[in-house]
Design goal:
Elements (H helix, E strand, L loop, with lengths): L1 E4 L5 H14 L6 H14 L3 E6 L5 E12 L4 E11 L8 H15 L5 E2 L7 H9 L15
Length: about 150
């Protein structure tokens, strides 16, 4: 297995994983829209996507990070927005390797850290994140939707 930073030539590997990720979060499959969305992220370079590829050259997991800033720390930070591993490859430490790459990006860009959120019912994620050094904060999270 190898971990790479995805670019446009990896679009066909990222799209099915991203679609499966959305399905995991109770969204309808929409490969065409996913393709447009991921292509835009890679073209505009407004996110960083790390991709896990197996020996056969298939995408088996990814994480997508968005840049942001912390006003109180006056530094860049990264939002670990998406993390997904194909169900056939779970339990092999791939999520931890992807998170390690995200941490390396934070260090390389002199960021103050990584921020992420997951649903309360995501039992796997809620066990994974503390095991790799994330701390559950007591802040209220609000969202305004259009």
């Amino acid at each position: 297995m190898q971990l790479i930073q995805a670019d446009l030539k990896h679009l066909n590997l990222v799209v099915p994983l991203f679609d499966a990720y959305r399905i995991f979060y109770s969204k309808e499959s929409d490969v065409d829209s996913v393709n447009k969305f991921i292509k835009a992220r890679l073209t505009q370079k407004d996110s960083v996507i790390y991709l896990a590829i197996n020996a056969e050259g298939n995408g088996i997991g990814f994480t997508q990070l968005y840049p942001s800033f912390s006003s109180t720390k006056m530094k860049r930070m990264w939002i670990l927005n998406d993390l997904y591993v194909d169900s056939n490859y779970r339990g092999q430490g791939i999520s931890k390797l992807l998170i390690t790459k995200a941490k390396e990006l934070s260090q390389e860009t002199k960021a103050c850290g990584l921020l992420l959120e997951t649903e309360k019912h995501n039992m796997i994620g809620n066990k994974l994140y503390p095991s790799v050094g994330f701390e559950l904060e007591e802040n209220n999270f609000y969202f305004w939707s259009i």
